[in-house]
Fold these 2 entries.
Entry 1:
Amino acid sequence: MTKKLTRREALKVVSKSVILPVSGTQLLAKPSKLSPQFMHGVASGDPDQSSVVIWTRVSTVDESIIVNWFVATDAAFTQGVKRGQFATDKSRDYTVKIVATDLEPGVTYFYKFEVKGAISPIGQTKTLPTGHVEQLGLAIATCSNYPFGYFNAYDAIAKDPTIDMVVHLGDYIYEYSTDGYGGETGKRLGRNHLPSHEILSLDDYRMRHAQYKTDKGSIAMHARHPLIVIWDDHETANNPWKEGALNHQANEGDWYARRAASLQAYYEWLPIRDPANSKDRSKYWRHYKFGDLASLITLESRHTGRNKQISYDEHLPTIKNKEQAKQFLHDVIEAPNRNMLSEEMQAFLKTELKESVSSGRKWRIIGNQSVIAKSIAPNLDEPVFSDFINTSSDDYTKKSLEQRTQLGKFELPSDLDSWSGYPDARERFYQIAKDAGANDLLVVSGDSHSYWQNVLFDANEQSMGVELGSTGISSPRSIMSAGADIMKRYDELNTAKNKEIVWSDGRHRGFIRLQINHSGAHADYMTVSNVETLKYNSKIIHSVNIVNTEGSLTYK
Ligand SMILES: [Fe+2]
C-alpha cells in the first residue's frame, strides 16, 4: 500500500524527495492541459544510466507545498515505476527537482506532478544507454533571448522524433533590462523582459528564469526531451571572467554576490543535479556516456578559470599599423598563462578523455561555450561595407563594422571573448586531448549567434577534429541590422580568410540536428523562418557528414 506522508513529515524533507511504493493503479491516470498550478511546464535533464532529474515549478504562492511526482514507462501511467512526494517552498522559489533513481539504462520514461488535485503536463525523458548503441540524435541549441522573439526553434526540436536529447550550450536567459540588447524588438513583440531592469538579485534572476519558461516553444521542448545544459555568460552577465564581468559595474554591488544569486536561480530553475556542496555551484562540468558510441564532455569556461577578456576598445586606438598589431598579438593576446579553464576543469577533462578513449567509444563530443576555431577578421575594404558605415544612422552597427574593418586591416582576431582571445589556453586544451589520445574532438559551440562548420588544428598544424557552431534560438548576430547582403558578404570573406572556417552563416536562427552512429555523423543546420510570430517553417539550410577514421575526423 502507498504510504501518504503527513504534511509535517513531508516538510521535514524540504529539497529532498521521498520515494513511495508504486502501483500502476494508484497513479493519477488522467493527463490534463497546462494547469494554472504548473505555468512553467515540466522539464527533465542531466541524465545518467540509472537516473534523471525531473523538474517542475508550482505557480501558486503558498507557504509550503507538497507535490506528488510519478514516473512510468507509458504515457497513460499504467506502468508506474517510481513515485514520491517533494516539499517545496519560497526558499527554493517553489521549484521542484527530483533525481529519479533506480531506472533502467536507455529507456524512455514519462513523468508528471500533482498538487492539490491539479496535474502537470506529462513529460517524456530518457536515461543514458549502456552497451552497444546504434544511433544517437542530439539537438544543439544556444542563445535563447526572450525579447528578440519566440523560441520557435525549441518548438521544432520538440516536434523532431529523431532527437534523443537536447544539448543547450548556454545563454539560456539574458540579463538585460527592457532598454538593453533586444529591448526594441521586445517592445514591438510584447515580449519585454521581466523584471524591466537589469537583473542583479536572486529575486531578479528567478523572475527572469520564470519568464523564459513561459515561452510556448520552451514548454514544448522541455516536456518532450531531456536537457543537457551548460551556462555561458548571460546566465549571469555579459562576458564574465573569474573575478568580474564586462556587464557588471561597481554600482551594481558585489560581483560574487551577484554571481551566487544567478547560479542559485540557475540550479533552482534548470533540471540539473545540485552540487554535493552548494558553495561550489560554479564547478559545473559533466561526462555523459552513450554506451560504446559517444562521450559528451561539457566545459565550464566562464566562472572558474577564465582570465579577463582583452578589450579592443582599450587597445585598438593605440595600434596604428600592422607592425604594432603584430606586437600586440604577440605580447598581449598570445601571452602565456591566460586561462579559459580552471586547473580542476582541465584535470577532469584529462581523466575523462582518457577514459573515453580507453573505453573504445567511437566519438568524443565537447560541449563548449564560445567558438574555438582560429578566426582572424577578414579585410572589409569593399564599398558594401564603407557605404553602410558612411550612410547608416545605426550607430551600434556602424561602430561594430568600423571596428571589424580596423581588425581586418591589421589581421587581428575578430572576437576576443572566444577562444581566439585565449590562444595559449586553446593550445593547452588541445594538449590535454593529445595526451589522452583524443585528436578526434567533435566540438559543439554556442555564443556567436552564427552557424559554423569548422576544422580544428593545433599550433603545429596537427588536426584536432571539427567544430559545429550553432546559431541563436532567437538571438541575432550583432551586425544583423546591417542587412542580409552585408552579413552574407562578411561570411564569405571570413570563410575565405580563415583556414579553419569551412562554412558560416549569421543570417538565420535555429539549431543543429546531429545524428551519430558508428560509421559517421551527420549534422543538419536547421533554421526557422521566423521568430516574430508563432507561425514558422523549419528547414535545413546546410548539411555535413563527418567520418572518424582511425582517430581523425574529416568532412565527407
Ligand atoms: Fe548569446
Entry 2:
Amino acid sequence: MTSTAQTAAATSDRALAQAWAVLEAVPDPEIPVVSIRELGILRDVRRAADGALEVVITPTYSGCPAMSQIAEDIGMALDAAGFAPYRVETVLAPAWTTDWITDDAREKLRAYGIAPPTGNCGSSEPDANTGTKQKVIRFVPRSLPAPACPRCGSKHTERLAQFGSTACKALYRCVDCREPFDYFKPY
Ligand SMILES: [Zn+2]
C-alpha cells in the first residue's frame, strides 16, 4: 500500500467514525429521549464503492410512518456536519425486533414513562436445522407477562387498548397508581 492510499484510508475511517458520532445523536422522532442507534434502527454507516457515505436503517415495522422523518433527520444531521455526498438505504431484512433496543434505551424509555418491551421477546429463534436466527411470524397473540408500571414499578397493570399513541405501543393502566402508560410491545 502506498502512503497516499494509507492516508486516504485513514481519512476515510476517521470520517466514518465522525459520521457514526453524528448519527448516534439523532433522536427517534416519536420518542426523543432515545436515539435511532439505541433503538436499533441505525444499522450501519459505511463507505460505498463510489465513495459516498451509505447509511443503513431498518424500520421498526414495515410502514412505520416515522421512517421518512428519520431519513430526513439523518440527512439534516449529515448536511449540517458536511458529510455530502451520502445515501440513506432502508433495509428490511433481517426484520427489526425489540431485542435490538439497547439496555440503556430501555432505562430511558422507563424514565420517560413508556414500559420497555419485556425481556427477550423470542421473536428471533435459532432455526432447529440451520442454527440461523429467523424472524418467527406469529398470528396468535402470545401470553406475555404484563409490563410493570414505569412510574411505580407495580406489576398490577391492565391493558386498555392494543394500540397506544402509535401502532407499536399498547395502552396500559397501572391498577395501583391508576396512571395510564404506553407499553412498547415486544416483537
Ligand atoms: Zn403505577
